[in-house]
Design brief:
The structure holds two protein chains of two kinds. Chain A contains 13 helices and eight strands. Chain A has helices spanning about 15-30, 45-50, 60-65, 70-75, 100-110, 130-135, 150-165, 165-170, 185-190, 195-205, 215-225, 235-245, 265-270, and strands at about 5-10, 35-40, 75, 85, 115-120, 140-145, 175-185, 205-215. An eight-stranded mixed beta sheet of chain A has the order 3-4-2-5-1-6-7-8, sandwiched between helices. In chain A, helix 1 crosses helix 12. The longest helix of chain A is centred in the middle third of the chain and has 16 residues, at about 150-165. In chain A, about 50% of the residues are buried. Chain B has helices at about 15-30, 40-55, and strands at about 60-70, 70-80. In chain B, strands 1-2 form a two-stranded antiparallel ribbon. Classes of the chains: A alpha/beta, B alpha+beta. The interface of A and B includes residues 148, 155 and 193 of A.
Chain lengths: ~270, ~80
Protein backbone atom coordinates (compact mmCIF):
# COMPACT_ATOMS: atom_id res chain seq x y z
CA UNK A 1 0.00 0.00 0.00
CA UNK A 2 1.47 3.31 -1.08
CA UNK A 3 1.13 6.18 1.37
CA UNK A 4 1.12 9.75 0.12
CA UNK A 5 2.32 12.29 2.67
CA UNK A 6 2.18 16.06 2.26
CA UNK A 7 4.71 18.22 4.10
CA UNK A 8 3.10 21.62 4.47
CA UNK A 9 3.07 24.78 6.60
CA UNK A 10 1.41 27.75 4.95
CA UNK A 11 4.25 30.07 5.86
CA UNK A 12 7.50 29.99 3.91
CA UNK A 13 10.95 29.39 5.30
CA UNK A 14 9.94 27.24 8.27
CA UNK A 15 11.62 24.05 7.06
CA UNK A 16 9.27 22.20 4.71
CA UNK A 17 11.96 21.24 2.22
CA UNK A 18 14.47 20.36 4.95
CA UNK A 19 11.79 18.20 6.54
CA UNK A 20 10.70 16.59 3.27
CA UNK A 21 14.31 15.68 2.50
CA UNK A 22 14.90 14.31 6.00
CA UNK A 23 11.63 12.37 6.17
CA UNK A 24 12.08 10.81 2.72
CA UNK A 25 15.70 9.90 3.45
CA UNK A 26 14.76 8.47 6.84
CA UNK A 27 12.02 6.30 5.35
CA UNK A 28 14.36 5.06 2.61
CA UNK A 29 17.02 4.25 5.22
CA UNK A 30 14.41 2.04 6.88
CA UNK A 31 14.06 0.14 3.63
CA UNK A 32 10.91 1.76 2.27
CA UNK A 33 10.89 2.65 -1.40
CA UNK A 34 10.34 6.40 -1.28
CA UNK A 35 9.98 9.25 -3.74
CA UNK A 36 10.09 12.88 -2.67
CA UNK A 37 8.38 15.34 -5.05
CA UNK A 38 9.03 19.07 -5.18
CA UNK A 39 5.70 20.83 -5.82
CA UNK A 40 7.18 24.32 -5.73
CA UNK A 41 6.87 24.95 -9.46
CA UNK A 42 8.92 27.99 -10.45
CA UNK A 43 11.05 27.93 -7.31
CA UNK A 44 12.74 24.53 -7.35
CA UNK A 45 14.88 23.92 -4.27
CA UNK A 46 14.53 20.34 -3.11
CA UNK A 47 17.21 19.33 -5.65
CA UNK A 48 19.71 21.59 -3.86
CA UNK A 49 18.83 20.29 -0.41
CA UNK A 50 19.14 16.73 -1.69
CA UNK A 51 22.38 17.57 -3.48
CA UNK A 52 21.25 16.41 -6.93
CA UNK A 53 20.83 19.79 -8.66
CA UNK A 54 23.29 18.92 -11.41
CA UNK A 55 21.54 15.68 -12.25
CA UNK A 56 18.15 17.23 -13.09
CA UNK A 57 17.14 16.45 -16.66
CA UNK A 58 13.36 16.23 -16.57
CA UNK A 59 10.93 17.50 -13.96
CA UNK A 60 7.40 17.09 -12.63
CA UNK A 61 5.82 19.29 -15.30
CA UNK A 62 7.69 17.44 -18.09
CA UNK A 63 6.11 14.22 -16.85
CA UNK A 64 2.66 15.80 -16.56
CA UNK A 65 2.93 17.15 -20.11
CA UNK A 66 4.17 13.83 -21.47
CA UNK A 67 7.59 15.19 -22.51
CA UNK A 68 9.22 12.49 -20.39
CA UNK A 69 8.09 9.40 -18.55
CA UNK A 70 8.33 9.04 -14.81
CA UNK A 71 11.35 6.73 -14.95
CA UNK A 72 13.30 9.27 -17.00
CA UNK A 73 12.50 12.07 -14.59
CA UNK A 74 13.18 10.31 -11.30
CA UNK A 75 16.65 10.92 -9.86
CA UNK A 76 17.99 8.00 -7.88
CA UNK A 77 19.80 9.08 -4.74
CA UNK A 78 23.49 8.10 -4.70
CA UNK A 79 23.78 7.72 -0.93
CA UNK A 80 20.64 5.86 0.05
CA UNK A 81 19.00 2.92 -1.69
CA UNK A 82 15.26 3.11 -2.37
CA UNK A 83 15.29 6.93 -2.47
CA UNK A 84 14.16 8.91 -5.50
CA UNK A 85 13.72 12.62 -6.17
CA UNK A 86 11.28 14.23 -8.60
CA UNK A 87 12.28 17.87 -9.06
CA UNK A 88 9.94 20.78 -9.67
CA UNK A 89 9.91 22.62 -12.95
CA UNK A 90 11.36 26.12 -13.22
CA UNK A 91 8.53 27.25 -15.49
CA UNK A 92 6.67 30.41 -14.57
CA UNK A 93 3.42 29.00 -15.91
CA UNK A 94 1.15 28.86 -12.88
CA UNK A 95 -1.28 26.45 -14.50
CA UNK A 96 1.38 23.86 -15.25
CA UNK A 97 0.14 21.67 -12.41
CA UNK A 98 -3.22 20.10 -13.15
CA UNK A 99 -5.13 17.82 -10.85
CA UNK A 100 -5.35 15.11 -13.53
CA UNK A 101 -1.65 15.48 -14.28
CA UNK A 102 -0.62 15.15 -10.66
CA UNK A 103 -2.90 12.14 -10.25
CA UNK A 104 -1.29 10.44 -13.27
CA UNK A 105 2.19 10.97 -11.81
CA UNK A 106 1.16 9.66 -8.39
CA UNK A 107 -0.60 6.65 -9.97
CA UNK A 108 2.55 5.81 -11.94
CA UNK A 109 4.70 6.03 -8.79
CA UNK A 110 2.26 3.77 -6.97
CA UNK A 111 1.30 1.23 -9.63
CA UNK A 112 4.32 1.06 -11.96
CA UNK A 113 7.15 1.81 -9.54
CA UNK A 114 5.54 0.38 -6.40
CA UNK A 115 6.63 3.11 -4.05
CA UNK A 116 5.91 2.60 -0.35
CA UNK A 117 5.92 6.33 0.39
CA UNK A 118 5.48 9.44 -1.71
CA UNK A 119 6.48 12.63 0.10
CA UNK A 120 4.99 15.80 -1.40
CA UNK A 121 7.03 18.89 -0.53
CA UNK A 122 4.45 21.66 -0.64
CA UNK A 123 5.24 25.25 -1.64
CA UNK A 124 4.40 28.02 0.82
CA UNK A 125 1.05 29.75 0.56
CA UNK A 126 -2.41 28.39 -0.13
CA UNK A 127 -2.41 28.65 -3.91
CA UNK A 128 -2.58 25.97 -6.54
CA UNK A 129 0.81 24.34 -5.92
CA UNK A 130 0.07 23.92 -2.22
CA UNK A 131 -3.44 22.64 -2.91
CA UNK A 132 -2.14 20.15 -5.48
CA UNK A 133 0.55 18.89 -3.09
CA UNK A 134 -2.11 18.25 -0.44
CA UNK A 135 -5.03 17.06 -2.56
CA UNK A 136 -4.13 13.37 -2.90
CA UNK A 137 -2.45 13.02 0.50
CA UNK A 138 -3.29 10.25 2.96
CA UNK A 139 -1.44 11.97 5.76
CA UNK A 140 0.05 15.38 6.52
CA UNK A 141 3.06 16.69 8.37
CA UNK A 142 2.56 20.33 9.39
CA UNK A 143 5.90 22.10 9.88
CA UNK A 144 5.69 25.01 12.30
CA UNK A 145 8.12 27.40 13.99
CA UNK A 146 7.35 28.55 17.54
CA UNK A 147 6.46 32.02 16.32
CA UNK A 148 3.10 33.78 15.90
CA UNK A 149 2.85 34.05 12.11
CA UNK A 150 3.93 30.46 11.55
CA UNK A 151 1.45 29.09 14.09
CA UNK A 152 -1.41 31.11 12.64
CA UNK A 153 -0.61 29.99 9.09
CA UNK A 154 -0.34 26.39 10.24
CA UNK A 155 -3.80 26.63 11.75
CA UNK A 156 -5.09 27.92 8.44
CA UNK A 157 -3.44 25.05 6.56
CA UNK A 158 -4.89 22.52 9.00
CA UNK A 159 -8.32 23.98 8.18
CA UNK A 160 -7.64 23.66 4.46
CA UNK A 161 -6.46 20.07 4.87
CA UNK A 162 -9.74 19.28 6.58
CA UNK A 163 -11.79 20.26 3.55
CA UNK A 164 -9.66 20.44 0.41
CA UNK A 165 -8.24 16.93 0.08
CA UNK A 166 -9.63 14.13 -2.02
CA UNK A 167 -10.10 12.18 1.19
CA UNK A 168 -12.33 14.94 2.61
CA UNK A 169 -14.18 15.57 -0.65
CA UNK A 170 -15.12 11.91 -0.85
CA UNK A 171 -16.67 12.24 2.59
CA UNK A 172 -13.98 10.32 4.43
CA UNK A 173 -13.23 13.13 6.86
CA UNK A 174 -9.91 14.70 7.75
CA UNK A 175 -6.60 13.12 6.92
CA UNK A 176 -4.35 12.60 9.94
CA UNK A 177 -2.17 15.69 10.38
CA UNK A 178 0.77 15.78 12.75
CA UNK A 179 2.87 18.67 13.99
CA UNK A 180 6.61 18.99 13.52
CA UNK A 181 7.93 21.93 15.49
CA UNK A 182 11.23 23.17 14.06
CA UNK A 183 13.85 25.78 15.05
CA UNK A 184 13.00 25.18 18.69
CA UNK A 185 15.16 26.79 21.33
CA UNK A 186 14.65 25.45 24.88
CA UNK A 187 16.82 28.29 26.21
CA UNK A 188 14.50 30.95 24.83
CA UNK A 189 11.43 29.04 25.97
CA UNK A 190 12.91 28.94 29.47
CA UNK A 191 13.38 32.71 29.38
CA UNK A 192 9.79 33.25 28.28
CA UNK A 193 10.88 34.53 24.87
CA UNK A 194 9.51 31.71 22.77
CA UNK A 195 6.26 29.75 22.59
CA UNK A 196 6.74 26.32 24.16
CA UNK A 197 5.86 22.98 22.56
CA UNK A 198 2.88 22.80 24.90
CA UNK A 199 1.70 26.29 23.87
CA UNK A 200 1.83 25.48 20.17
CA UNK A 201 0.19 22.11 20.67
CA UNK A 202 -2.57 23.67 22.74
CA UNK A 203 -3.34 26.20 20.02
CA UNK A 204 -3.13 23.88 17.02
CA UNK A 205 -4.59 20.84 18.78
CA UNK A 206 -2.94 18.19 16.64
CA UNK A 207 -0.69 15.30 17.55
CA UNK A 208 3.02 16.06 17.95
CA UNK A 209 5.32 14.18 15.58
CA UNK A 210 8.55 15.76 16.72
CA UNK A 211 10.54 18.76 17.85
CA UNK A 212 13.65 19.76 15.92
CA UNK A 213 15.94 22.13 17.79
CA UNK A 214 17.44 25.24 16.22
CA UNK A 215 20.72 23.82 15.01
CA UNK A 216 23.79 24.75 13.03
CA UNK A 217 23.65 21.29 11.52
CA UNK A 218 20.69 22.28 9.32
CA UNK A 219 22.56 25.03 7.47
CA UNK A 220 25.69 22.89 7.28
CA UNK A 221 23.66 20.09 5.73
CA UNK A 222 21.97 22.32 3.16
CA UNK A 223 25.32 23.95 2.30
CA UNK A 224 26.64 20.52 1.44
CA UNK A 225 23.46 19.16 -0.17
CA UNK A 226 23.06 16.39 2.38
CA UNK A 227 19.72 15.72 4.10
CA UNK A 228 20.36 16.63 7.74
CA UNK A 229 19.10 13.24 8.93
CA UNK A 230 22.34 11.74 7.53
CA UNK A 231 24.28 13.81 10.08
CA UNK A 232 23.63 11.28 12.81
CA UNK A 233 25.86 13.04 15.35
CA UNK A 234 23.86 16.25 15.21
CA UNK A 235 20.89 17.15 17.41
CA UNK A 236 18.71 18.04 14.40
CA UNK A 237 19.66 14.80 12.62
CA UNK A 238 18.72 12.77 15.68
CA UNK A 239 15.49 14.71 16.16
CA UNK A 240 14.50 13.93 12.57
CA UNK A 241 15.42 10.26 13.02
CA UNK A 242 13.14 10.17 16.08
CA UNK A 243 10.35 11.84 14.09
CA UNK A 244 10.68 9.20 11.35
CA UNK A 245 10.48 6.45 13.98
CA UNK A 246 7.33 8.02 15.42
CA UNK A 247 5.94 8.46 11.94
CA UNK A 248 6.26 4.69 11.54
CA UNK A 249 4.46 4.08 14.81
CA UNK A 250 7.22 3.88 17.42
CA UNK A 251 6.58 5.57 20.72
CA UNK A 252 9.60 7.61 21.71
CA UNK A 253 10.02 10.34 24.30
CA UNK A 254 10.62 13.81 22.85
CA UNK A 255 14.24 14.91 23.11
CA UNK A 256 15.71 18.41 22.80
CA UNK A 257 12.67 20.06 24.38
CA UNK A 258 14.10 20.91 27.76
CA UNK A 259 17.17 22.80 28.76
CA UNK A 260 20.03 20.77 30.12
CA UNK A 261 20.41 22.35 33.52
CA UNK A 262 23.98 23.18 34.31
CA UNK A 263 25.26 21.61 37.50
CA UNK A 264 27.07 23.57 40.17
CA UNK A 265 30.39 22.88 38.48
CA UNK A 266 29.10 24.07 35.14
CA UNK A 267 27.67 27.20 36.69
CA UNK A 268 30.93 28.00 38.41
CA UNK A 269 33.21 27.32 35.50
CA UNK A 270 30.95 27.23 32.44
CA UNK A 271 30.73 31.01 32.12
CA UNK B 1 19.01 44.30 39.52
CA UNK B 2 17.69 45.73 42.75
CA UNK B 3 16.07 43.68 45.45
CA UNK B 4 12.78 45.48 44.75
CA UNK B 5 12.48 43.89 41.34
CA UNK B 6 11.71 40.63 43.13
CA UNK B 7 8.85 42.28 44.98
CA UNK B 8 7.26 44.08 42.06
CA UNK B 9 4.77 42.19 39.92
CA UNK B 10 6.59 40.35 37.15
CA UNK B 11 6.29 41.70 33.64
CA UNK B 12 4.40 39.33 31.35
CA UNK B 13 6.76 37.33 29.16
CA UNK B 14 6.63 37.91 25.43
CA UNK B 15 5.83 34.23 24.89
CA UNK B 16 2.68 34.43 26.97
CA UNK B 17 1.61 37.58 25.10
CA UNK B 18 2.16 35.65 21.87
CA UNK B 19 0.09 32.74 23.13
CA UNK B 20 -2.83 34.95 24.17
CA UNK B 21 -2.85 36.83 20.87
CA UNK B 22 -2.72 33.58 18.94
CA UNK B 23 -5.54 32.00 20.91
CA UNK B 24 -7.80 34.95 20.13
CA UNK B 25 -7.02 35.27 16.43
CA UNK B 26 -7.07 31.54 15.79
CA UNK B 27 -10.45 31.18 17.52
CA UNK B 28 -11.84 34.01 15.42
CA UNK B 29 -10.51 32.62 12.17
CA UNK B 30 -11.78 29.15 12.97
CA UNK B 31 -15.29 30.41 13.57
CA UNK B 32 -15.44 31.71 10.02
CA UNK B 33 -14.22 28.43 8.64
CA UNK B 34 -16.39 25.64 7.33
CA UNK B 35 -19.27 28.03 6.72
CA UNK B 36 -20.62 28.86 3.26
CA UNK B 37 -18.21 30.60 0.87
CA UNK B 38 -20.34 33.75 0.69
CA UNK B 39 -19.89 34.47 4.40
CA UNK B 40 -16.85 36.81 4.22
CA UNK B 41 -18.46 38.88 1.46
CA UNK B 42 -21.76 38.99 3.31
CA UNK B 43 -19.91 40.26 6.35
CA UNK B 44 -18.09 42.90 4.28
CA UNK B 45 -21.29 44.17 2.64
CA UNK B 46 -23.17 44.26 5.93
CA UNK B 47 -20.35 46.27 7.39
CA UNK B 48 -20.63 48.79 4.56
CA UNK B 49 -24.37 49.17 5.11
CA UNK B 50 -24.00 49.62 8.85
CA UNK B 51 -21.23 52.16 8.31
CA UNK B 52 -23.57 54.33 6.25
CA UNK B 53 -25.38 55.07 9.49
CA UNK B 54 -23.04 54.31 12.37
CA UNK B 55 -19.26 54.46 12.48
CA UNK B 56 -18.30 50.95 13.58
CA UNK B 57 -15.07 48.97 13.69
CA UNK B 58 -14.04 46.23 11.31
CA UNK B 59 -14.73 43.75 14.11
CA UNK B 60 -18.17 45.10 14.88
CA UNK B 61 -20.08 42.81 12.54
CA UNK B 62 -19.96 39.15 13.38
CA UNK B 63 -21.64 36.66 11.09
CA UNK B 64 -21.79 33.04 12.06
CA UNK B 65 -23.50 29.95 10.80
CA UNK B 66 -24.37 27.33 13.35
CA UNK B 67 -25.43 23.91 12.23
CA UNK B 68 -28.06 22.17 14.21
CA UNK B 69 -29.86 19.01 13.30
CA UNK B 70 -32.39 19.85 10.63
CA UNK B 71 -31.50 23.51 10.14
CA UNK B 72 -28.70 26.06 9.80
CA UNK B 73 -28.88 29.21 11.89
CA UNK B 74 -27.40 32.43 10.50
CA UNK B 75 -26.45 34.57 13.44
CA UNK B 76 -25.75 38.27 13.03
CA UNK B 77 -24.12 40.24 15.77
CA UNK B 78 -23.48 43.95 15.38
CA UNK B 79 -21.80 45.83 18.18
CA UNK B 80 -22.60 49.53 18.10
CA UNK B 81 -20.25 52.09 19.63
CA UNK B 82 -21.38 53.39 23.02
CA UNK B 83 -22.02 57.02 22.06
CA UNK B 84 -24.33 56.03 19.18
Amino acid sequence: MTKIVVVTSGKGGVGKTTTSAALATGLALRGFKTTVIDFDVGLRNLDLIMGCERRVVYDLVNVINGDANIKQALIKDKRVDNLFILPASQTRDKDALTQEGVETVLDALRDDLQMDYIICDSPAGIEKGALMAAYFADEAVVVTNPEVSSVRDSDRIIGILASKTRHAEQGNGDIPARLLLTRYSPERVEKGEMLSVEDVQEILAIELLGVVPESQAVLNASNAGNPVILDTDSDAGQAYADAVARFLGDELPHRFVTLNKKGLFGRLFGG
Amino acid sequence: MSIFSYLLPKKQSSASVAKERLQIIVARERSGRGGPDYLPQLQEELLQVVRKYVPVDQDAVNVQVDRETGCDILELNITLPEEA
